[in-house]
Structure formats: structure tokens, C-alpha cells
Amino acid sequence: MLRDGRTIESMQVRDATPAHVVAAMVGRDVGELYPRSPARPGEVLARIDGLAGRKLPREATLELRRGEVLGIAGLVGAGRTELLRAVFGLDEVASGRLRVLALEGPRTPGERWRQGVGFASEDRKLEGLALARPIAENLCLPRLDKLARRGWLSPRAMESSARGWIERLGVRCAGPQQPIGALSGGNQQKVALARLFFADADVFLLDEPTRGVDVGAEAEIYGWIDSVARVQEPRKAVLFVSSYLPELFGVCDRIAVMSRGVLHPARAADEIDEHEVMLQAAGGAA
User: Fold this and answer.
1) pTM here?
2) Which of 49, 182, 231, 255 lies 20 to 30 Å from 93 when distance is taken between CA atoms?
3) Residue-range domains of the chain with CATH
4) For 111-148, what is each residue's pLDDT tens digit?
């Protein structure tokens, strides 16, 4: 227990299931659960320098490159979520420099979506999805302009596009018009992530993308992340926040630790271990 009441375990244990047990539950070994194609980092797509929000983060500096998955570890309340929200335009930036793709400075969420930046919130029930609305609307909402013809939105085009992504991502549902709140947590999360694919985002901001989903959906999500970052062209850049250390080490090329609002420099995942991450997150020297 830390002096402020936080626990190191809150970062490491989202659920108590070890990675090898999860792999066995989905019929795969650990290497298959966390697929890792060769990384080919390219140009810098996002550069953050001394970024601070009104409360959190206090200071964050990083570079995110095309073709890499950069993980952010830290205790709950350290400022990881606030960093992603500030980059995406949901939280105010108080100071520092921010450049994402070709745009300098803060932008609104609508501008970020149109620019090619997609965000998946950790709280899909309250802000990530409109649970009473159909799957098609939820999936296409961030980029309805892609479906408009001469200023008119085509419901047929929306349903057709949504149906295609439902089939490609294996969303189990009755069809595009089913309310998304009727789906399981794993299928809801698939739709939330399908938004980023539909929007053709170049930068993926993922905040706890496997929280509250079944182990089968987890494995699928890990496969998608590997594919979009390291395999498919054009490769994407993924900024990945997680409280589950085996996930971070299994998925990410580099890991940066957020401690009390300050983001420490990112290190290659194979040059740091879980003990160092936990020590740094708790405010100790790594």
C-alpha cells in the first residue's frame, strides 16, 4: 500500500488470471495470445513535449512512430487516461507542445477524427458508446461525412458499411440495426474499435481496450493491434494504456511509465521488466 492509498496490485492485476492460463482458455500458447510481428518503426506521427493538463498529466513527453505500439503503464489515477484525452481533445491542455500528424496544437475531437486520430475510451458504457442506439450509428458516428452524398446522409450506406465491419470483425449480433446495449461486453468493444477502422485512423489511442471483455475477444483484439501496427499497409501508430502488465509486455514495442502525473521516458519492452515498471510507477528509482 502506498501512502496515498493506491496499490501496486491495482496496476498489475485487472483480473487474477495469469497470461498462460488465459492462453490455455482460448486454446493458444502465450506467443499466439500476444502475436508480435517484426516491428518496423517509421516516421513520427505524434510528438508531445512537456504537455500538461489542468490537473493531469503534470508533464508528458514522447514520440509515437508509425508501425509501433507504445504502452503507458502506471497506477490508477496517475494521469494516463488524462494524457490520451488531452491528445484527443477531450481534456484541456494547459501547457506544452503537441503535434499530431500535420497539425500543431490542441484540436477538438471532431477535428481529430477527421484528421485520422481515433480514440477508444476505457468507459464504453458512459462515454464510449450510445447504448440505446443501433450498432450502425455507433460504428459510423465519428465519420458520418464519409457516407454523405451531396450533403445528405444515406441510411443505406451506413447500414451497408456497418454490416461489412460486423462481418470482418466477427461481431455477434442480430444485424446493424440492433441496439448496441444488447450485445455482450466483448462485442460492444469490437464495435468501439471498429470505429477506428471505419474512420481509417492513422493514430490509435486505446485506453484499456480489453477491460471487461471475455478472453476470446481479448485474443482477437491483440491480433488486430499487431496487424494494424506492424503488418497492414499503411501501418498505424498505437498508443496503448493498460493496467495489466502481462498485456503491456505482450503487445507493446516500448513502454513508458506514468507516475504521479509525470511520464517517464519510454524504453524498449525487452529492456525493462515488471519489477522496474512497478517500482517506477510507485515513485521509486528504476
Assistant:
1) 0.89
2) 255
3) 9-116+202-281 (3.40.50.300), 132-200 (no CATH)
4) 999 999 999 999 998 889 999 999 999 999 999 999 98
